[in-house]
Amino acid sequence: MKFHILTLFPEMVMNGLGTSITGRAMASGAISVDAIDIRDYSKDKHRHVDDAPYGGGAGMVMQPGPVCDAYEDLCNRTGKKPRVIYMTPQGRVFNQSIAEELAQEEELVFLCGHYEGIDERALELIVTDYLSVGDFVLTGGELPAMVMIDCISRLVPGVLNNEVSAEVESFHDNLLEYPQYTRPEVFRGKEVPEVLLSGHHKNIEEWRRKESIRRTLERRPDLLPGASLTLKEHRYLDSLKGGEDGLLELEEILDGYAAEAERLFCKRDGICGQEDRAAVQEDRAAVQEDRQSAREDRKVSGLTGPLPGLGEPAPRIKRRAMSEVKKLLALGGCTLNDVKSYYKVCKARLKLIQKDY
Known about the structure:
The protein has 357 residues and is α/β, with parallel strands linked by helices. The protein has 14 helices and nine strands.
């Protein structure tokens, strides 16, 4: 992967990135870093690239000419027009998800501002992404660019010796990384957790997963709504909270969905009363027929997507839904909040169907 950095201080970024893991990756050819001095494109004999802002104000603004010329020369040399990322506190806050997205690119350009920033016209002409490392102000964009390049590089094949390392660090599955230990087994009276010495890989993985959940709850609870957890892991999370807030809400949502589905079932066929519902529940053939009718009902209403358990008594509907939830969470393709939202929408769709009766 190729990184190009448009900067006024090329030595600063090359010295910083030329060490440790990124330095070794540059030496091996896994990544390449090219620092382009914007001053080389100045038309001024003193290599000035800034001037006073129109309208007055403190500080100096980088002129658009040298910035655009530096980028256009890069495009001419490479035959490509890579994404240009401008370092600014006004941009989206950089995170692991953005790093994973950017790691798919073959080349990236990082534009580093200085002084009071860069003339807006240059930004409008060449910048594709505005990114920040946080809600604070730095002297220039070089440090943020180095931080992002370091993070993205770790996701490039061949940069890390252990490819698994980049996949299981903090923020994997929106969880913080579990605690790490090494020799000695006892240090100042503190022991390594026994499970890590057991050699039982399944138990070790389960312990690490639980510790990731615990640590995220303690230090970054804001990450948990987007975490991919199984139903069992949600129960563990709720136990750490001292209750069952997450699953309790899910139960209530599924109860509401099941009741609405049964209400539609009874309304269509005129079934009212406990004995009638029990009789229908026992008659499996009738239930299957009702489910087929329900599918036709959805088509009549223009709602052709699946509605789990429609045409069955409420207890069975809820059991089917909970079974489906367990499978969805186990696959890791959605979060508990996604499931809750899904069944809220299903309930709303049932109300639309009832208008046809």
